[in-house]
Amino acid sequence: MKKTTILLFALCTAFACAAQTFTLSQLKGCKWVSYELDGKVNTVWFTDSAYHDENFYTSLNKTATSKMPFYLSDTIEKVFDEAKVGTNTSGKYLIVKSGNAKHGFNLVVCEIMGISDTNLSIKYNVYSAKKTIGGVKFVENFTKVQDRTATPCVDAEQLKGGRWQAVDVEKISSCGGHMQVTFTDSLCITDISLYEGSDTVHVESQYYLSDSKPGTFDQAKIGKATHGKYIVINERRRTLADSTWHYHLVVREIMEASKDRLVIKWDEKNTCTFKRVCAF
User: Fold this and answer.
1) What does DSSP say about strands 22-23 and 138-147: parallel, antiparallel, or unpaired?
2) Could you tell me which of 189, 63, 187 has the C-alpha nearest to residue 179?
3) Measuring CA to CA, how many Å separate 37 from each of 40, 55, 140, 165, 202?
4) What is the sign, positive or negative, of the torsion defined by CA atoms of 70, 76, 80, 83?
5) How far is residue 45's CA from residue 108's CA, in Å, rounded to a whole number?
6) How many whole angstroms separate alpha carbon 180 and alpha carbon 189?
7) Rounded CA gap, 212 and 251, in Å?
8) Contact (Cβ atoms closer than 8 angstroms) between residue 122 and residue 142
9) Closest CA to 114 of 209, 15, 205
């Protein structure tokens, strides 16, 4: 059903955008994600002067991000005009300067096929000043996943109903381990294996959601406070030296949340990206 909806969106916008002009404000203020390409998750976002393209390669557990100057144009341009960056804010074509000083720059033109409140469709490689490997024309459809101008509050229902697997915890994944998080009405359940063949540690901790960081854990809010940007956890912990379970207040900020992707600021130094791997 999801693929059908995206296909219909692409078909409808293909006819509607022949003479249509889009504005930078329609692109900015959010991230757009696509799961259409085999082996990777593609996320893009725009600022006044830069086009950001992030690819997470699922089999390698690696992320590559590019930041490229760009501007909008009503026509296909074959020379990149630096003076238009940040000033040309409307058009149907993305005029992008890709590459770098070390390996050389290239001008690439992409066509915006359509934009709605929730979807973005882009035709890539409409024109390239240089020949590139795999530079064939193709259309990729994106879904809005984060409003960067608004507080990314979520409901507990968005977290529940499946397992979330960490996809960018390199120290664990490179050793064959894994980390999964599951939410119920009252429990945040973490399953973690540090390396291949190691035992999986299963920890069930009570939690609730909050719009602000609390100083203490409020038991009365368990199962009742179901909306907010912070996951407030009464986390159970123990060490190898002491097998007794202790409780510790942990507050984790939700940076991004969509149907299949969850980004959490895990602690002061680490941000974890999760992908929904099982629904139930």
Assistant:
1) unpaired
2) 189
3) 6, 10, 8, 20, 34
4) negative
5) 17
6) 8
7) 10
8) yes
9) 15
User: Which residues, 6+ apart, have CB-to-CB distance to 147 below 8 Å?
Assistant: 29, 30
- The alpha carbon of 219 is separated from its chain's Cα centroid by a whole number of angstroms, namely 32
The amino acid occupying position 60 is L
Q: Using alpha carbons only, give the angle 10, 69, 29 rounded to the nearest 5 degrees.
A: 55
pLDDT recorded at residue 147: 57
Q: What share of the chain is helix, strand, coil (3-state, %, to 5)?
A: 10, 50, 35
Q: 82 in helix, strand or coil?
A: helix
pLDDT of residue 119: 93
Residue type, 228: G
Tell which residue, 70, 62, 22, has the closest CA to residue 44.
Answer: 70
In this structure, the chain runs to a length of 280
**pLDDT given at position 7:** 43
Q: What is the pLDDT along the chain (280 residues), one digit of tens a residue?
A: 444 444 444 444 443 444 578 999 999 988 899 988 888 889 999 999 999 999 888 777 788 889 999 999 999 999 999 999 999 999 999 999 999 888 899 999 999 999 998 899 999 999 999 987 767 899 999 998 865 555 567 889 989 988 999 987 655 656 777 899 999 999 999 999 888 888 888 999 999 999 889 999 999 999 999 988 899 999 988 776 777 888 999 999 988 888 888 888 888 777 888 998 876 5
The phi and psi torsions of 26 (rounded to 5 degrees) equal: -75, -25
Contact status, residue 230 vs residue 212, Cβ threshold 8 Å: yes
Report residue 172 as tokens: 């664990």
Strands 162-166 and 271-279 come out as antiparallel
